[in-house]
Amino acid sequence: MAEESNEKNKASGPGNQKDPGGPFKYNFGNNKFALFFLITLIGLFLIMFVFNDSNNMTDISYTEFLRAVEENNIESVRIYDNQEIRGIFRTTVPGRSAQFKTRIPYFDDTLLPRLETHGVRVTGAVRNVSTYRLFIDLIPWIIGFGFIWFMFRQMQGGGNKALGFGKSRAKRYMDTDKKFTFADVAGQKEAKYELQEVVDFLKNPGKFAKIGAKIPKGVLLVGMPGTGKTLMAKAIAGEAGVPYFHMSGSDFVEMFVGVGASRVRDLFEQGRKNAPCILFIDELDAVGRTRGAGYGGGHDEREQTLNQMLVEMDGFDTKDGIIILAATNRPDVLDPALLRPGRFDRQVVVDMPDIKEREDILNIHAKKIPVDPSVDLKRIARATPGTSGADIANLVNEAALFAARKDQKTVTMQDFEQARDKILLGVARHSRVISPEEKNATAYHEAGHALLHYMLEYADPLHKVTVIPHGRALGMALSLPEKEIYSRYKGWLLDRIKIALGGYVAESIVFNTTSTGTQNDLKQATQVARKMVCEWGMSTKIGPIALGNEDEPIFIGKEIAKHKDYSEETSRLIDEEIRAILKDCLDETTQILTENRSKLDLLAETLVTKETLDDFEIRTLLGIGYKNKNIAIERQERQNAQEANSNTTQASEKSSDNNDIKQDEENNKEGRSQAE
Question: Do 449 and 477 touch, CB atoms closer than 8 A?
Fold first, then answer.
């Protein structure tokens, strides 16, 4: 069997996929030119070797020729153009040809008298170039030029495209590829409604032409990364049933000047040949940035590419049946000429999913894995605010990986919880060795954050607090909103600052000093306070005015672009207001934690022991009730379900143990009966 498998492997080795005769045979069926070239070359060498009349002659030196003349061993000679002598020996040496040839190295006046003296018959001749010989000499040149021409043709339009710089690299998705439809894109009802017109136009353009309506030439999909812009473009092509060409914006720009514009022309030419179709350009900002922002002068390849794209889009006619789709997450940096009516005259926002859309996305991805019936996807959707469709797909995949590591047949709710914590908190680093003193300090720091969630009016509910290192953080307190919130009020922002200062204040109260672990907390608190003063008009002294505009040129770093649009006096007032907000929040945070020192100590001590506490455990530990009765009922039901699941597991294990004991007793009885 081993020998047979080895023979099969040899037969299916590289270069022998279609010819099982041997590993060294090459299949010329895919390249007839290579076969023709090889046969012609072999034939040429054979002809030159067989018909070469000089192969039967002995090549001797001129000195040896003169010696043979003196010895009267030369019968006759023929002199060609006073350069070459060919003759016949009178007597030959065994193994040596009777005919010879030699070249005259210099002009010898004594040659003819010497030949006459020794009775050598002399004739002269002019070397003639025959048509046959001329053809033989030209064959290598013809073959060489033909081979070079063939290689250029291959490189221009063939496989590797080594010289096809100006050709478009757009990938075409045919009807045989997997089709995506709007049903594969969860949520995004408004975006689908806007794009349904594009689908209707591609299916039935006559309906719009009769009423005189013009469909948008270009549709720009705008949204955060991972929201499904590319998937939406595929869904449009799948719904309309037309060819779909996909190309990234960075594919246009090359190191050679003019290549980007050439690729734009080639892409739009492909679109005209395959109309009706969809041309999709992903990451449009890579080539469509505002012109004239390249400091330092000189010609910019991106600008030339953009100019060609503007010309091609402006020359399009709606009757061509070509729709240009583009996606970007930076619409603010695009050139205004791209966004005017007649080019990308419609912008469709592909927004982050809300709680209902997140649940729909979870249902789509959960169909691909075996999910336990106890999994509540609605609860997972509510616990993942601010996540995109790509994040949710990653969450489902991580949950499946957790289940696979445990050798489970289905993915349970615990796996989804672990996957969510891994994505939101980072990977838990259980292997990091932390001293008891540092662990105690971290527990008080995180307890300060966690306790404030229950003492402040506008704070979001706490989800989990842990002193297990995650990522680069030694501990973490995570809060999740109860519902979708799209704008924040001043009270929530102030409570957010107080929670950020909770770790700093807790360390100050307990240890009379602070650590470097407060760096990120202080940075967050300062950023929120600065935005309250400069951007959101939440300072009574500054008033409702936006300060500190930052314009970012396209090819210049952010630091160079920053500039002040206010006076030094206003700058001083801004610093005072920021400091005042932070000071008020710090004083109130200190007062709250000082008054609740016993709860702070209890929570920190419990964290040192258990390392991780969730909202229900903290409320039970501190005796804090729920403001919302529905949440209290839901949390209690969840806790009861977890306990019931744990009891069921224990009972199942106990029943299994009892069955094993009974089976052992029966086996012992059978053994005794057989022995008797």
Answer: yes
